[in-house]
From TrEMBL:
Origin organism lineage: Eukaryota, Viridiplantae, Streptophyta, Embryophyta, Tracheophyta
Database matches in InterPro entries: Homeodomain-like_sf (IPR009057), Myb_dom (IPR017930), Myb_TF_plants (IPR015495), SANT/Myb (IPR001005)
Chief location: nucleus
Species of provenance: Penstemon davidsonii
The protein, known as: Uncharacterized protein
Keywords: DNA-binding, Nucleus
Chain intervals with Polar residues compositional bias: 122-133
Sequence ranges assigned to domain Myb-like in this UniProt record: 10-62, 63-113
HTH myb-type domain location: 10-62, 63-117
Chloroplast recorded as keyword: no
Chain positions covered by the region annotation Disordered: 122-154
Amino acid sequence: MRKYLFSEKQHSKKGANWTYEEDQKLIDYIKIHGEGNWRTLPKAAGLQRCGKSCRLRWINYLKPDIKRGNFGEDEDDLIIKLHALLGNRWSLIAGRLPGRTDNEVKNHWNSNLKKKLINMGINPNNHRVNQTPIRPKQDPSEEEEEEESVNSSS
DNA sequence: AAGGCTGTCAACCGCACGTCT
DNA sequence: AAGACGTGCGGTTGACAGCCT
C-alpha cells in the first residue's frame, strides 16, 4: 500500500495522491449524502478536487465492499474467459467479480494476465493460440516485425 | 552501495453516452 | 431536434518499490 505523500504537486491537487484528510472528507460526505452528484460533491465536501477524481477515488479505493489483495487463480481464469467474450469491457468484467473494480481488473490484466497468456502461446488480443511457438527474443527488430505481422493479419 | 530497469497501481484525460431542457 | 450537462468507461501516464547489475 502506498503511503500518503506530501509533494509540491499537492498545491494544485491535480495529479497529487489523496491525503488521509481528503479521504475522510469524502467518506464522511458520502456516508451522509450518498453517492451521486459528483460535480457538486467536491465543493460541498470541502475538497479541492474535480468530481471525476472524487468518483474514481470512491469507486476504486474507498468503497467499503472493495476486496483488496491478490487475485486468485479462479479470478484469473474468470477474467481471461470474460475478456475472450467481452474484450476490453473492463467495467462489465469487473461486474462479474465481486469486490473488484474495473481499474483493478484492467491493471491486473495489463501487468499479469497478458504476459501469462503470451507465455502460454495465446494471443491476448484475440485469445487465439499462436501457430509458432514462443521463443526468446534475440533482436529488438524481430519484435517489431512480429507486431506488424499480427497487425496486418487482423 | 548505487544507479538503472521493471512491475505495479493510483490517478488523470479524453471521449462516448444518456438525460434533461 | 439539438445543445448543454453530468456521468461512466477505457487508455494512458507518472510515481514508487523492489529487483538486478
